[in-house]
Amino acid sequence: MLPPARLSHCPICRASRGEERDSCRRCGADLSWPLRILREAHRESQLARQALLREDLIQARHHARQACLLHRTPFNELLEAFVSGVR
User: Fold this and answer.
1) How far apart (Å, rounded) are the C-alpha atoms in residues 39 and 87?
2) DSSP code at position 80
3) What's the first-to-final CA gap in the chain, in angstroms?
4) What is the pLDDT along the chain (87 residues), one digit of tens a residue?
5) Full-model pTM
6) Interior CA angle at 29 toward 27 and 35, to 5°?
7) In angstroms, rounded to a whole number, what is the distance separating the alpha carbons of residues 60 and 43?
8) CB proximity list for 59: less than 8 A, separation 6 or greater
9) Rounded to whole angstroms, how far apart are CA atoms 28 and 19?
């Protein structure tokens, strides 16, 4: 299983985010929403893989698409392309 994506830099000021905090240490930006989106994208990716194992292609496609919409990573793109091509 893949680990969830990390938010390594603040999307506002690009400060390094070494500690697990819900706000940026430099600019104070609230990072709770970007972190929530990353967690949800990871959950959708997991649900897509579980649906594939159950051979439920409709659900696999749905969850893979949601994962890509939330966080477009190379893995999520490959997962979406794979489930779109499976018959």
Assistant:
1) 29
2) H
3) 24
4) 556 667 888 989 999 887 677 889 899 999 999 999 999 999 999 999 999 999 999 999 999 999 999 999 999 999 999 999 876
5) 0.82
6) 135
7) 12
8) 47, 48, 51
9) 13
